[in-house]
């Protein structure tokens, strides 16, 4: 099992500007470097910060292969109108 599947809790301090410092151990583990972008997601019990790194991009590669998303959206909208 990868260490990334284990849930751990760390504490961070917010600055006046709302910035936080991610603990260095987590920055290394998740390949977070200066300029790394992150998705910030509001979830039921707080805020989830997901770094956008090379690994996260590779995990998404090919996810929608073979799917015609525009066609699927049009069909979904048509079905909604017919209800």
* Largest sheet properties: 2 strands, antiparallel
- Share of helix among residues? 25-40%
Q: Which architecture name does CATH use? A: Ribbon
The mean pLDDT is 81
CATH class: Mainly Beta
Question: How do the strands line up in the largest sheet?
Answer: 1-2
The total of beta strands comes to: 2
Spell out the key features of this protein.
Pemi-like Protein 1, Chain: D; 83 residues; 17% strand; alpha+beta
Can you give a write-up of this model?
The chain is elongated and about 50 Å long. It contains three helices and two strands. It has a two-stranded antiparallel ribbon with strand order 1-2. It has 83 residues and is of the alpha+beta class. It has helices at residues 24-29, 54-60, 69-82, and strands at 37-43, 46-52. The chain has one domain (3-82): Ribbon (Pemi-like Protein 1, Chain: D).
Write the layout of secondary structure elements.
Blueprint: H1 24-29, E1 37-43, E2 46-52, H2 54-60, H3 69-82
Antiparallel strand pairs: 1-2
Provide a brief overview of the structure.
The protein has 83 residues and is of the alpha+beta class.
